[in-house]
Specification:
Layout: H1 4-18, H2 25-41, H3 46-60, H4 63-66, H5 71-86, E1 102-108, H6 114-127, E2 132-136, H7 144-155, E3 159-160, H8 168-181, E4 186-190, H9 199-212, E5 216-222, H10 227-239, E6 244-248, H11 257-266, E7 270-274, E8 282-284, H12 287-295
Parallel strand pairs: 1-4, 1-5, 2-3, 2-4, 5-6, 6-7
Antiparallel strand pairs: 7-8
The chain binds guanosine-5'-diphosphate.
Length: 296
């Protein structure tokens, strides 16, 4: 189960309150200490944890909670609300351009799941009646183009490529023209990643951005990398500017640190989550549902 470690610990801390009936301020503080440890162990950003605990604690020691007949339920409700708010409150959708094609640029480090997710996203929108085109701009990673073609074939979505000799900027521009000619109303550009963030990568992404003017730049990050994912998101956002995040490999993430920190640290919403290797393992992200899932 995703975020299993975090769920167990949070539920453990809150269950103790349930057995108490009326609560004292000390009971709440003790529980919050456990919640804090659970969040830190889950690799949630330190400052995010501090702010979160402060907010929850302030709300919990209020008259209304302490004097209610079911104070533990109140505390759980507050934790749930604050977790939801931490992850962005409401689901954030991809903005579809009123003038097609909508252009989505996928960015991220190598191995994060960019190519797979480009396909998944194409499949998601195809099911909604769109006519996507995948554009293969990852000319550096061996087999990335072939991989996108295989994904496209499986989903019956066309893939535009110019091999690996042309520059990614030219491929992106030509892909866009191809989409307009062929009535594709959604263009998903799979850009190149690197093992680490470097200037050459960022310069290339900036050039693609300024040439094709994407409606959405989506950053793909691997949730299992915890705070590293958050740092990557901060860097990409500062240097390139991103509109949203897709968090992959949540199916294998027992901790949850990236999911709980990224929005608070970068102010950018998580738009989708990757829940497996199969091409339909992509879900829109709902902060409220995720909070309830964590609290069980
Ligand atoms: P890229 O280098 O960023 O383009 O990464 P790939 O798309 O090649 O993905 C790297 C690996 O992660 C592949 O083995 C994918 O099957 C796997 N992967 C991608 N997304 C998910 C996901 O949501 N869950 C799981 N379990 N694996 C994923």
């Amino acid at each position: 189960m995703i975020f299993e470690g975090l769920s167990d610990k949070l539920q453990g801390a809150l269950d103790k309150l349930k057995s108490k009936g009326k609560l004292t301020e000390k009971d709440v503080k003790d529980a919050m200490r456990e919640v804090k440890l659970a969040l830190l162990e889950a690799d949630v950003n330190f400052k995010v944890v501090k702010d979160f605990i402060k907010k929850v604690q302030e709300r919990c020691v209020g008259q209304e909670v302490m004097q209610s007949l079911t104070p533990a339920q109140h505390v759980i409700k507050i934790v749930n609300e604050e977790l939801t708010s931490l992850m962005g409150d409401v689901a954030s959708k991809i903005v579809i351009s009123p003038k097609p094609p909508t252009i989505i640029m996928m960015v991220g480090l190598q191995g994060a799941g960019k190519t797979t997710t480009s396909g998944k996203l194409g499949g998601y929108f195809k099911k909604q009646g769109k006519k996507p085109l995948l554009v293969a701009c990852d000319v550096y990673r061996p087999a990335a183009i072939k991989q996108l073609q295989v994904v496209g074939e499986k989903l019956d979505i066309p893939v535009f490529n110019m091999g690996d000799k042309e520059s990614p900027v030219n491929i992106a521009k030509a892909g866009l023209s191809h989409a307009i000619k062929n009535n594709n109303d959604l263009v998903i550009i799979d850009t190149a990643g690197r093992l680490h963030i470097d200037e050459a990568l960022m310069d290339e992404l900036k050039s693609i951005k300024s040439e094709v003017k994407p409606h959405e730049i989506l950053l793909v990050v691997d949730s299992m990398t915890g705070q590293d994912a958050v740092n990557v998101a901060e860097s990409f956002n500062e240097t390139l500017g991103v509109d949203g995040v897709i968090l992959t490999k949540l199916d294998g993430d027992t901790r949850g640190g990236a999911a709980l920190s990224i929005r608070a640290v970068t102010q950018k919403p998580i738009k989708f989550i990757g829940m497996g290797e199969k091409l339909d393992d992509l879900e829109p992200f709902h902060p409220d549902r995720m909070a309830s899932r964590i609290l069980g």
